[in-house]
């Protein structure tokens, strides 16, 4: 097995000192050397196949330019969308995002990672149970740490709250203005007991009550997947004359299943039935017609990523950030 090429090997090949080679390859003082010397060092490094140790140089400077991202598996669509968006944005600033799954009950794993010295900052997009457990285990984190979700106030952590209610109200108002007088609810929850803990259900029922649009109606309980929603919606749509004017779905997966079922049953979308999803997923945008949905747009994600990137170098001006959902009307609504 070939030995790893060292900095001293590059220096010897280029005929310079290891210090000179290090300064040129790091770029920190390259302009202090003649262009011919810089060229010799870079050519030597290239010919020998030398690569700098990012971790080693980071530890010397006291910054690793690495952010740890914790999530509860399986990664849901919003967390996945944020993680992909954040990775791309942070890479532009030479910051690296390392994603680590953490199951409920394994919060000591988060404590260990925050304390190991390999990360400049961290972000948690975990189940609220894990986030609260972390704050109990570690009231003051050793590195700046951002948490998604509504949690007990703790100025030692940076809280990012997502306000869903305004977006849901805006979407339901859009359905009403589009002529819908009967709006049903299709859920990713499996039972009425689970649904009672769903904030989106309560926002829906409140809007119907305030707008005098009748009694809230659960069209079906599903398992949260596209196939499950498709099967449930197909059963409901087949041979029924008393369909609602519109359906609000508390996830994009469920909404996609409903759109596919309606199409198979010969129901015209959106003329005969309007459908709105939740989550602003890429899958919904790829649907034909494109799914109307509620969620965060890229500008909202950018504000969270910007806050996350500043944590690696300075103290934030505020320990809270509120992101508000928007209604995104597309092809499945008027």
From TrEMBL:
InterPro entries for this protein: HTH_LacI, LacI/GalR-like_sensor, Lambda_DNA-bd_dom_sf, Peripla_BP_I
Coiled coil spans: none
UniProt-listed CDD domains: HTH_LacI (cd01392), PBP1_LacI_sugar_binding-like (cd06267)
Record keywords: DNA-binding, Transcription, Transcription regulation
Domain HTH lacI-type: 5-61
MF terms in GO: DNA-binding transcription factor activity; transcription cis-regulatory region binding
SUPFAM superfamilies per record: lambda repressor-like DNA-binding domains, Periplasmic binding protein-like I
One Pfam family hit: LacI
Record's protein name: Catabolite control protein A
Source organism: Schaalia odontolytica
